[in-house]
């Protein structure tokens, strides 16, 4: 954040000293631990290391901010979440405990009245008792899907996905409704709830989600908690423990070279004699590869030119030579030409980035089992549409309007033939039908959700076009031609973002928890090595809490703990802070 023009001389001096420290840290090329990525997993790893006395670490972050997929911006008088929205659950959730410890949650939480209405395309509202009936049936169908994992019994023949199973249950349920009109209306509500589920799960269609694995996700009790000051406020207490010079922003990692005993000779045999390694170490930054900033982090894509292939090869060769002669286990090569050595690397890059770069990011390449697991899991796109207005126009008692799109041109808002990718023309004509509802953030701020290929298509449109389309939708479903145009529209674009390439992880048909465990498996340079050279963390590496911030946090802490655990058996003092929920409850009981 830039300093105010009236900043005092002492503040400027402090800033200069801080910049000098950062420069010194960046000039230091050898570290015990390098953490790739300053999202929740990276910050959690760094915090756990720092709290346990290990300060010789460096975080390399591609963006020019920390937080990863946690980012809040101001919109009107509101803090809006462009990424992570809620703390999912209370009991046993480290994010809730951290927020409580730092006073980020209001104890006196007066629930807002929540009235949901559902409307058809012709503007008719569905009677609430019908909406409630279908919702209760849907929840029952979803719980039955979860039981396959929990109870380990087999589904009906040829039913492999959650979508297939729920649609079978819906069909059986609707067979009991005689009136065709009533049956059609109920089907539209089920379709809307399935679209909603794609946003919760992070996929294009529930037909993509493995039925036997749905129950592998563990839901923590206590509901969803919103931080009044925005989810990004939880980043401050994490960053406060980290020296500024230990975090390098706007520094995307190009390649991670790691020693592997069996492949070391092969990896370095092609190294050319030309080019001294110190020229790489001192190479100037490449201004062409500009990182995104916090206000635009999920609304615009940074533009940068690719370096020439020969330059890439020279850098890779130089890094390989450094690794060959170094005592370090890992050499990390950055886009700006900087090269860092480390004993250990914790890679927290999102699954979307690994899917795109896994075969080129690591030298030698990742083991085949890891690459196959990265390919098997799903990393879907879920985007948000925020609409800000000058004045309220929705009935004050209504908190959400569900959009019951007629499914005649493709059920579940998808292309008629599900075996084929929807073509460009179909998406152009139908993308907006994947928006399942608009909910009130405040009286003058609405939020719409969209997922899958329709979300990816929306990311190619201007915010003006999206705002116009949303206005048409609201006028149609509310049967009100005077619904105003929004004064501002903000759309996220998580798929286009080079440092995320999507939203969050789901278990696709044919994949399993084993794939998550495979990705999380650390890599050793030799069979006799006591600590791994490369560790992995992030929500995609937690077998029960994938897709969540608390999953990312716990995975980062676990990776750090592996490096902190002594080689020889001795008394281990585990971290115990006041954020531990059981200690907190005990404290209340004692008082």
Account of the protein in words:
This protein has 591 residues and is α/β, with parallel strands linked by helices. It folds into 2 domains: 20-105 and 227-261 and 323-380 and 497-566, FAD/NAD(P)-binding domain (3-Layer(bba) Sandwich), CATH 3.50.50; 106-226 and 382-414 and 430-491, Alpha-Beta Complex (Polyamine Oxidase, Chain A, domain 2), CATH 3.90.660.10. Helices cover 36% and strands 15% of the residues. Strands 1, 2, 8, 9, 10, 11, 12 and 20 form an 8-stranded mixed sheet that branches. Strands 6-15-16-17-14-18 form a 6-stranded mixed sheet, sandwiched between helices. α2 runs parallel beside α17 (549-564) and α12 crosses α16. Mean pLDDT is 84; it is low at 1-18, 263-308, 409-414 and 582-591.
Short account of what is shown:
The protein has 591 residues and is α/β, with parallel strands linked by helices. It has helices spanning 9-27, 40-51, 94-101, 128-151, 162-174, 180-201, 235-240, 264-268, 277-281, 309-325, 351-361, 368-376, 424-430, 452-458, 463-478, 513-520, 549-564, 581-590; strands spanning 30-36, 57-60, 72-75, 78-81, 87-88, 116-120, 224-225, 247-248, 253-258, 330-334, 339-347, 362-363, 378-380, 382-388, 400-404, 437-442, 445-451, 488-491, 504-506, 534-536.
How is the topology of this model organized?
Blueprint: H1 9-27, E1 30-36, H2 40-51, E2 57-60, E3 72-75, E4 78-81, E5 87-88, H3 94-101, E6 116-120, H4 128-151, H5 162-174, H6 180-201, E7 224-225, H7 235-240, E8 247-248, E9 253-258, H8 264-268, H9 277-281, H10 309-325, E10 330-334, E11 339-347, H11 351-361, E12 362-363, H12 368-376, E13 378-380, E14 382-388, E15 400-404, H13 424-430, E16 437-442, E17 445-451, H14 452-458, H15 463-478, E18 488-491, E19 504-506, H16 513-520, E20 534-536, H17 549-564, H18 581-590
Parallel strand pairs: 1-2, 1-11, 2-8, 6-15, 9-12, 11-20
Antiparallel strand pairs: 3-4, 5-7, 9-10, 10-11, 13-19, 14-17, 14-18, 15-16, 16-17
Helix pairs in contact: 2-17, 4-5, 4-6, 12-16
């Amino acid at each position: 954040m830039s300093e105010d023009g009236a900043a005092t001389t002492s503040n400027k001096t402090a800033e200069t000293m801080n910049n000098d420290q950062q420069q010194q840290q960046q000039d230091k090329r050898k570290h015990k631990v390098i953490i790739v990525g300053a999202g929740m997993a990276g910050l959690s790893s760094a915090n756990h290391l720092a709290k346990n006395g290990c300060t010789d670490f460096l975080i390399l972050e591609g963006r020019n901010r920390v937080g990863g997929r946690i980012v809040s911006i101001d919109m009107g008088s509101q803090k809006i979440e462009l990424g992570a929205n809620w703390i999912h659950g209370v009991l046993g959730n480290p994010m809730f405990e951290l927020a409580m410890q730092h006073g980020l949650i209001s104890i006196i939480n007066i629930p807002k009245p929540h009235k949901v209405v559902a409307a058809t395309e012709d503007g008719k509202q569905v009677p609430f008792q019908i909406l409630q009936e279908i919702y209760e049936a849907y929840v029952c169908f979803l719980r039955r899907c979860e039981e396959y994992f929990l109870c380990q019994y087999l589904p009906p023949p040829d039913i492999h996905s959650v979508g297939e199973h729920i649609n079978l249950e819906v069909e059986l349920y609707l067979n009991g409704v005689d009136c065709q009109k009533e049956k059609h209306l109920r089907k539209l509500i089920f379709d809307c709830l399935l679209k909603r589920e794609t946003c919760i799960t992070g996929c294009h269609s529930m037909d993509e989600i493995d039925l036997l694995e749905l129950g592998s996700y563990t839901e923590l009790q206590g509901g969803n908690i919103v931080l009044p000051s925005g989810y990004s406020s939880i980043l401050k207490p994490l960053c406060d423990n980290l020296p500024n010079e230990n975090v390098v922003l706007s520094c995307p990692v190009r390649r991670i070279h790691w020693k592997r005993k069996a492949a070391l000779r092969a990896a370095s045999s092609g190294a050319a004699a030309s080019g001294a390694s110190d020229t790489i170490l001192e190479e100037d930054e490449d201004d062409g590869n500009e990182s995104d900033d916090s206000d635009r982090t999920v609304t615009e894509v940074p533009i940068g030119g690719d370096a020439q292939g020969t330059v890439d090869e020279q850098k890779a060769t130089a890094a390989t030579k450094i690794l060959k002669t170094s005592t370090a286990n890992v050499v990390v090569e950055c886009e700006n030409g900087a090269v860092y050595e480390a004993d250990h690397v914790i890679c927290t890059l999102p699954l979307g980035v690994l899917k795109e770069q896994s075969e080129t990011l690591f030298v030698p390449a990742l083991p085949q089992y890891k690459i196959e697991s990265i390919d098997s899991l799903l990393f879907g796109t879920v985007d948000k549409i925020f609409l800000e207005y000058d004045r309220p126009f929705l009935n004050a008692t209504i908190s959400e309007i569900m959009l019951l799109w007629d499914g005649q041109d493709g059920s579940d808002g998808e292309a008629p033939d599900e075996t084929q990718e929807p073509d460009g023309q179909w998406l152009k004509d139908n993308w907006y039908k994947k928006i399942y509802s608009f909910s009130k953030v405040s009286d003058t701020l609405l939020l719409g959700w969209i997922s899958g290929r329709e979300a990816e298509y929306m990311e190619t449109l201007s915010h003006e076009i999206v705002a116009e389309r949303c206005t048409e939708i609201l006028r149609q479903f509310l049967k009100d031609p005077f619904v105003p145009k929004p004064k501002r529209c903000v759309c996220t674009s998580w798929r286009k973002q080079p440092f995320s390439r999507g939203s969050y992880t789901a278990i696709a048909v044919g994949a399993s928890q084993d794939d998550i465990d495979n990705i999380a498996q650390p890599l050793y340079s030799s069979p006799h090595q006591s600590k791994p050279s490369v560790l992995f963390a992030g929500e995609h590496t937690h077998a029960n809490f994938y897709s969540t911030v608390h999953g990312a946090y716990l995975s980062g802490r676990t990776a750090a703990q592996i490096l902190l655990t002594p080689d020889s058996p001795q008394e281990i003092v585990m971290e115990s802070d006041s954020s531990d929920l059981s200690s907190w409850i005990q404290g209340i009981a004692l008082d």
